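quick one before i forget lol
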Amino acid sequence: MDHSKLGKPSPDSTVIRAATLDDCSGILECLALAFAPYRDVYTPEAFLDTVLTPHSLRQRMAQMTIFVATDASGQVLGTIACKVIGDGRGHLRGMAVRPECQGLGLSTRLLQKALDELHQRGCNTITLNTTEPLQRAARFYEKNGFRRTGKIGSFFGMPLIEHSKSICY
């Protein structure tokens, strides 16, 4: 299928790479567009912590490795962040794909890039969290080998559901 005729980028023309400060506005736009449908079901604080601000994004960039999927023009189409927690554990956060690019395999490629990064850095167990409204994301993660751990935390007044996956290459 030629996605360019649909106004969608071709999956073959996308590049997944480490984010730079030049990508900040594109990452913020991607997060805002991807999470906009959930704004009304998130608490205001949880939504802001999910879509980030320029300041909180710079903080995340200092604490985590952020990857972006970009098209040939450099537009950010998707993003994911990861970090080593310690003791062979890594954590994923902030995965988003622009709505018009969903269903093209970018999520799978972003996830694999982050898993590869964490594995190279000595992690063999990866965790991530979802919220109740993110049913599609939870199904995606489960399809990719993540399982609910049973741990439920609090995310600015919302239940935060932990998922985990062991990785061995």
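fyi The first strand starts at residue 15 and ends at 18.
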